[in-house]
Amino acid sequence: MRLCGALLVLVTLTSVVSSAAVIRRDEGGGGGKLPRPASLKVARWEPEDTKHFREDSDLTGHYDERFFSGVVDYDTRLDTLKHMVRAWLLTTAKEGIETWIAHGTLLGWWWNGQILPWDWDLDVQMSADTLTMIGDRYNMTRHKYVSKDGLVEREYLLDVNPWIWQRVRGDGMNIIDARWVDVRNGLYIDITGIAETQPDSMPDILNCKNYHRYHVNDIWPLRDTTFEGVPAKIPSSFDEILITEYRSKALVVTEYEGHRWNTKSKTWDLANDVPAGEDALLLTNRVREPEKYYSVESGGFFYNVFRLLHWW
Ligand SMILES: *[C@@H]1O[C@H](CO)[C@@H](O)[C@H](O)[C@H]1NC(C)=O
């Protein structure tokens, strides 16, 4: 009995310590524009470094380390992202790879069929089966792209994480399943798969590795639309998905991250008087930021208790 008590104290202590680390890491970790706080380096404590995708660690975390050659300016970033998503949508359509736009990219579609100009990376999803297929057939393939007007030529790398077989979060280091990377500057699209992880207890419920959860009927049948001027697909219940993820405020707020919604042109225009970055974080009416994978810690209190008990 005394041993039991001692173990319980140990469990509690360990959990409190790791929860403290969790809280510290989450503060200010979300969102795109700010440099990553030093506390994120806590991730280096992982007993074994399993991480497949590597981002620049001292800047913003938005560039693939292998292709990083300097921080890009506003116009270059937008130009990069717009052509990058067109290339992804056109290439996947041509190759018969089923994919749809997700998260902040889907929110951008909702407003005007374009990316949100304050975004740094884009998000698309696919089924776990499709993911396995691209892991087998398309890993490390390079794809050339020429814009419709013939003026822009680019090349993209499709890199598939070897951890795709693991459909639960694990150590949290590999929740992005694949990436579509602009090899000129390292900006990328995050590709995540969704899978039915508990068919017995939760049939038809699909998860990504970052705890986003969908019913099969929320996703399929996919709807046809256009994004950045090219054919694209979106989930069947896109509105519910957006409201669950960002709250309905994200569908009505017209000033955000240094931009203002222009009702005439239906675009988000740069506006110097709209706060961005740290100033915007202080405002209470801000839109909930998309959850970035590096800002979310695996577990929490109960997870840690469970993990320790499990080991015994
Ligand atoms: C894709 O290729 C890279 C580089 O060779 C490799 O590290 C990775 O394990 C591969 N992914 C899959 C899913 O096989």
Secondary-structure element order, as H and E?
Answer: HHEHEHEEEEEEHEEHEEEHH
The coarse silhouette is: globular
Based on DSSP secondary structure assignment, what is the total number of beta strands?
13
How far do the termini sit from each other?
Answer: 15 Å
User: What is the number of domains?
Assistant: 2
Backbone CA Rg: 20 Å
Organism: Tuber borchii
Subcellular location: Membrane
Domain LicD/FKTN/FKRP nucleotidyltransferase: 93-200, 206-247
Protein name: LicD family-domain-containing protein
Task: Describe the 3D structure.
- With 312 residues, this protein is α+β, with helices and mostly antiparallel strands.
- The chain has 2 domains: 51-246, no CATH class; 247-312, no CATH class.
- 31% of the residues lie in helices and 20% in strands.
- The protein has helices at 2-26, 74-95, 103-112, 128-137, 216-219, 238-246, 277-282, 301-311; strands at 100-101, 122-127, 141-146, 153-160, 178-182, 188-196, 205-207, 213-215, 223-227, 230-234, 255-256, 259-262, 267-270.
- The strands form 3 sheets. Strands 1, 2, 3, 4, 5, 6, 7 and 8 form an 8-stranded mixed beta sheet that branches. The protein has a 3-stranded antiparallel beta sheet with strand order 11-12-13, with no helix packed on it. Strands 9-10 form a two-stranded antiparallel ribbon.
- The longest helix is centred in the N-terminal third of the chain and has 25 residues, at 2-26.
- The chain is globular and about 50 Å long.
- The protein starts with a helix and ends with a helix.
- The structure holds 2-acetamido-2-deoxy-beta-D-glucopyranose.
- 2-acetamido-2-deoxy-beta-D-glucopyranose (NAG) is lined by residues 135, 139-140, 160, 162, 164.
